[in-house]
Amino acid sequence: DLGPPPYRFGDKVRKIVRGGALAPYVTVAFGGQRRRSTVGDGPDEAGHYVFNESVPFPLSDMEATPQTLAFEVRDHRRVRRLDLDDPVIGTASVAGDQLDSPEVQVLDLLDGSGVARGRLRVRLCWARERAA
Predict the structure, then answer these.
(1) Which residues are in the C2 domain (predicted)?
(2) Residues near 113 by Cβ (< 8 Å), separated by ≥ 6?
(3) What confidence tens digit (pLDDT) does each residue in 30-61 have?
(4) What is the pLDDT of residue 81?
(5) What CATH number does domain 24-51+64-123 carry, 3.40.630.30, 2.60.40.150, 3.40.190.10, 1.20.1420.30?
(6) Is 70 exposed, middle or buried (0-12, 13-18, 19+ CB in 10 A)?
(7) Model's pTM, two decimal places?
(8) What pLDDT score does 42 carry?
(9) What does the alpha-carbon distance between residue 22 and residue 48 come to, in Å, rounded to a whole number?
């Protein structure tokens, strides 16, 4: 249930080659670190893309966690201009005080204008490294 990103040069070629299908991936940023998923599988019969990936961020026990976990869903483009990155479908974030919830969280993906572009389902967990 992802909406298309804003139109960009080269989209007509993409529609011809790939039938206009999205190729979404997720970037996750936390504590000055950034990770990227692979391109999601899908869409399935319900129109959902599935990433099903774990994204580890190493943290020490001494670090406070009031930081925000930021998500950005982008549409991968095989052909792009050097001055433009893959277009953003939508962004979402989880505040530090919500990071301890083990339940699946459904985040609204918003574009730069605040318009809903889809939803992202995430499950967060803290896995502490054990001392040897």
Answers:
(1) 1-109
(2) none
(3) 888 899 988 887 778 887 888 888 877 776 65
(4) 54
(5) 2.60.40.150
(6) middle
(7) 0.73
(8) 75
(9) 11
